[in-house]
Amino acid sequence: MNNKWIRGAIPALLLHCSIGTVYCWSTFSTEIANYIGASKSACGWAFSLAIFFLGMSAAFLGDVVEKDIHKSSLIATICFSVGMVGTGAAILLKSLPLIFLFYGCIMGIGLGTGYLSPVKTLMLWFKDKKGLATGLAVAGFGAAKAIATPVMQFILDKFDNNPAPMFFIMGGVYFVMMFIGHLLLRKPSDWVEQHAKGGIKEFFSTLGANFKYAFSKKTFIGIWLMFYINITCGLALISQEKQIFNAVGFAGIAAVLGTVTAIANAGGRLGFSAWADKLKDRNSIYKLIFILSIAFTACVIFTRGIENGANVKILAIICVGLLIMVNAGYGGGFSNVPTLLSDHFGMEKISAVHGMCLSAWAFAGLTGNQMATFIVKHFGTPDEAVNPVGYQTVLYVTCALYLIALIISCVMVPKSGKAAAAKKEA
Predict the structure, then answer these.
(1) Is pLDDT above 80 for 65?
(2) Does pLDDT of 416 surpass 90?
(3) CB neighbours (10 Å) of residue 344?
(4) Average pLDDT of the residues in 106-110
(5) CA nearest 353: which of 116, 145, 162?
(6) CA–CA separation, 51 vs 42, rounded Å?
(7) Which helix (H) or strand (E) holds 7?
(8) By the 8 A CB rule, do 134 and 123 touch?
């Protein structure tokens, strides 16, 4: 069967709609902390480790994905499912180190390989609309939070806020979804590529060559840096999202607004990438994302919207608009990376190069939400349940970082081969 939807799009959505539930962490993090008797901040490192291992496994296993998507998608299925079920067992044992192991390390490896596995395959099936194709799959990653959150909350309520049964049930569901995706995923039959085969020595030799190839390029470093900054800023604000809604007087509809921002995240992944297909230079999308993020952030800074939003509803609405924009830009940054890299470096080694670039996600996972947590703890009223001054202070840092990312996008990332060719023809 040589159908681009059955062999490309559907398995990509099955894989990404499963692993994207990593962003549901806030749904059950408090319940985990309460059940095992640990602080929420200590438990938060499980999420940070999951994102770190996601990025690093993508960097280390990018060449495995390049050579054999069947092997990589199976690794993803097993690691993610074992990570989910193992986390449930660790919760019953009330062991934080085991939660770090299963949710952070093992599930994180499943996240990285599962994220990479369908991307090149989609670009091969949808050659004329690569951005739309990758945006569709990565949108599944973003939409997973909106889909899974109410289901997870329902299971939590049924089991008196004991999160262990939820992990057992969802782990089984995701194993079935991902295994079906693994069985369906195929590259087009007319795509021919050759890869050297070898053992551990050859693996590390190839890994070193890929690292040297990628990080010796100014363009790649520029893309890596602006990708890292976009994720760092996104995680800094997304991690404080619920508290910001509470601060501006929207506590009663915080869950609804959370779904809205999740939809914006998914919409940004699909919309920005589809838009980029129509542009001569995909980097223009990143410039647009950074300009809009700076404008919305600056507006909330100058009006002190988070501090005053509870009393002035228009300012509260502007704060919601900022979080919608940040989520959309966060998602759009993800979906445009593989196609931007393919425009500059070609399709032959895109999985390996994309994997190297996803290492930025790993480091952003360690710095984004931790940076925001540090600021909120040291500014305003950190002992209060809601700290508007602390959340407002986070914006000064993210605005500065968005500005740096815009400068990098303009200075370090040249026009792609597609854009240069179009300019030459004109």
Answers:
(1) no
(2) no
(3) 21
(4) 94
(5) 116
(6) 16
(7) none
(8) yes
